[in-house]
From TrEMBL:
Protein name: Selenoprotein S
Native organism: Microctonus hyperodae (Parasitoid wasp)
Family that this chain belongs to: Belongs to the selenoprotein S family.
Region listing for Disordered, in residue ranges: 122-168
Record keywords, A-Z: Coiled coil, Cytoplasm, Endoplasmic reticulum, Membrane, Selenocysteine, Transmembrane, Transmembrane helix
Record has Kinase as a keyword: no
Subcellular location: Cytoplasm; Endoplasmic reticulum membrane
Coiled coil: 81-116
Amino acid sequence: MDEDSNFVHHSASNLTIIWAAIASVGWYILAVAVGLFFASPYIKEKYINWRTKKDEEEYYAKYHKNPDLFEERLTAVEAARRKMQDKYNEQAEIAKQKEEERKELKRQQLLKLTSNLNNGNKLGIADDGSSSSSSSSSKLRNDYNPLMGDTNRGYKPPKRSCCGKKCG
């Protein structure tokens, strides 16, 4: 039991020592953190530039010493480009064939649809000339247009009146 209380007392004293150190320089730590936050984009840009320059120097040193390595790399890059171009050409050819097939199918469907239509016949009149359709057409008036509606019960807009200021 005495050992547990000693541990708590000992850890509390360490905590107070650490807290006292932080409290004495806390504003400085905060100022440095804010400064790093605002300077980080500038520092990052400088680091990237430095890293790029270092990589380029290593690249030039490596390939300047051994020109065969440079030729091998160029050959490999050219082979990769050729392979990618061939793959693209194959895909383009396949896409072109599919597009032509789709257009041909669409054209066939259109021809099939137009061949099934009754060319030159009115709607409701069959090719065999049945009497039921002729009797229904006699029921309709010659001047009847279903889009016009009945002429004696149509909508009539209200009359325009003057705005009340003797404008007309």
